[in-house]
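Format notes (please read before filing issues)

Several people have asked whether sequences and structure tokens are stored in separate files. They are not. Every record keeps both together, in the order shown below: the sequence lines, then the token lines. Line labels are part of the format and must not be stripped during preprocessing.
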Amino acid sequence: QTLSQRPSDVLKRVRAELAKGNPAAALSHLDRCLTISPQSSEVRLARGEILLQMNRLDDAIRDLETACRDLPDDEQARMLLIRAYSRRPQTRQKARDVAAKWIAERPTDLQARLVLAGIEFEQGRFDEALEAYSAASRMFPGNVESRLGHIFALCALGDYAAAREQFDEALTVNPDSDDLKLNLARFLVTCT
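Then the structure lines:
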């Protein structure tokens, strides 16, 4: 019995293999599919994501660049490519450039701003991360992730008084946020 090699059928099998914790088998399905349908951007995207999880960065970047070129409006493809670029010192600037272009194209997109801020933070560029998280917090005051990023960047810079003020302000806007309450408790135990 032969299995269908249509991209949609292959992607279902890939999801099943990933759910079983078997990325190598999932990758094998995708590789077979690409020999038959090399132009399938969805298969390239799925393959790039798995390769990224396996830390096979050169192959992941190649597939994700292709997916982004073929699917220019796909936010997942763009986000995965940014993550792949940010893992290698020689391509980190490309990660920033792609994220900045995304923000320029969609200035009110929260996800693009959070991705850029996260890259800056991961790379120890805390002033830049603070600026990006602060901008996201101003644009989306009710977003807990941007608020926490803003607070973490302040802590990384050693400005604990400003971080405490940000906690108070964030809890005023989001009084029921368990994430804010948990992180405030951790902050009070470790930073005061």
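For reference, the curators noted about this record: The chain has a mean pLDDT of 91. The longest helix spans residues 23-36.
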